Amino acid sequence: MLCAALIISLSSSAFANSGPTYWQGYPSAGMMAVDGNCPISLVGEDLVFDFSGWSGGDYTITGGVTATYQMVNPTGEAQSVQMAFPFVGSVGSLSADDVTITADGVALPYEVYIGDAVKSYANRDPQTKEASFEFEDIVSTITNQTYMAENFGKNEKGKLYSIYVEPTGGQAINFAVDFSFNREKTRVLTGGFSRLEWDEQKVRIASWCREARLLEIFVLGEDINLGINAYTDGELTERTGLFSYRVEEEEKEVMTYLLEYVNKYGNAERLDMLSDVQLYNLYAKAFDEHLSRHMAIGSEHDIMAVGEQKRIITLVYTVDFPPESQKEVSVGFTAAGTMDSRKTIKPLYFFEYILNPARNWAGFKDLNIVVIPPPAAPYVVESSIALAKEEDGVYRAFLDELPEEDLFFTLYAFPRITLLDRAYGSVQRRFGYFTPIVLGAVLPLIVVAAAIGAVLKRKRRLSG
Predict the structure, then answer these.
(1) How far apart are CA 226 and CA 181, in angstroms?
(2) Rounded to whole angstroms, how far apart are CA atoms 380 and 389?
């Protein structure tokens, strides 16, 4: 009875705090040299995962990871070494506060390079596609070559229609633009419009205007004729003349306009971290792929969404080494684990750290690993490297050379995964969010049936 009450209590708690049963995290990776023939050696690495400050407010555990390297230039010549640090993030969430890179305690400037979008990985599910943190794949993304689009050229000129709209009757208007165009000869990018209607004959775009606004239409190829009206209703049936507008036209090259476009509709503070080439490549590719899907018209909703995709982003910086010298280089960043509550009563939190970049240095030795778990998940229940728990609750490991496999470990609320955990997980996988209801309804019946069975069995023994 107590066991049943415990399970019902746990399931009720889970139902009251219902959320995702799986939340994708991503691997972290070590620092690498861009030049594969670099003579610099690593003579010590302290790798610290500190999750002690996690309050449980997010769906998965996040915390600070710091990799501190003791690096030696054994040659008699000065070395200027270009280094790279890859991580998974989104352009829309880039922040200079999330990453710190120092050499002997002095912050280093860096450039940001944008890699391919990732799907889902960072776990050991054989059906999960993994992104590559291999040295050659990362280095191939460190380029300032301009993206070559299939549907336009970066210097191709288009016509920009800037439409200045203002309601004059004291109420909002639904401003609409109608036009026809040949999909094979014309491509259109709009800005500021929130409505699109499109058939074989014509296009209508519209947006509510409660005050003066600027709306944009950028046309590549054959020009269009604009039909302009305003309405007082959402169905665009009640016309009104209580508005004013003016249209300005100018020619602009695609690259120039796209850079203005993303700065206008994106987060300017975050985009300042990227070069013009990196910005253009990201959003030009998004627009090009949109057009290749036979969508001859796009908007900021279609194009800017690419900035929220998770992708491999690489920070590139340079460290100068005098002859026969040693420097301490440190990289600090925020890591998020994969949360999986499909198998156990409490969620499992999986973390992975890619160690293979360290193989590209001239030498490597002495890896010191420290894992400081959060109070909500204080136990390492599995890991690729033996982590010893000490009296302070911190897990540690020391290796005098680089291990054959990458590092992973899983944090959990209890010291081990029990049969009860797995039983709950089995029900969870089958019934999902309905698990608490199922357990709450079925377990009392099981308990009652077991109690009746025990009473009948006892009666049979007495009567016998």
Answers:
(1) 11
(2) 8
Strand partners, 348: 340
Could you tell me which residues come within 8 angstroms of residue 7 by beta carbon, excluding any fewer than 6 positions away?
Answer: 420, 424, 439, 443
In sequence order, what are the beta bridge partners of 326? 72
The residues, ordered by sequence, that sit 6+ positions from 126 with a Cβ below 8 Å of its Cβ are none
Tokens of 463: 């009567």
Give which of 91, 90, 110 is closest to 100, Cα–Cα.
110
pLDDT value for 8: 46
Please tell me the predicted confidence (pLDDT) of residue 353.
94
């708690």: which residue's tokens?
13
Beta bridge partners of 44: 70
DSSP string, 39-82: --EEEEEEEEEE-TT--S-SSS-EEEEEEEEEEEE-SSS-EEEE
* Phi, psi of 185, rounded to the nearest 5 degrees: -115, -10
From residue 393, give the alpha-carbon distance in Å to each of 56, 60, 374: 18, 20, 10
Give the span between the Cα atoms of 180 and 183, in whole angstroms. 9
Share of the chain above pLDDT 90, in %: 61
Query: Does pLDDT of 15 surpass 60?
Result: no
Composition of the chain by helix, strand, coil, percent to 5:
25, 40, 40
Strand partners, 176: 206, 229
pTM here? 0.79
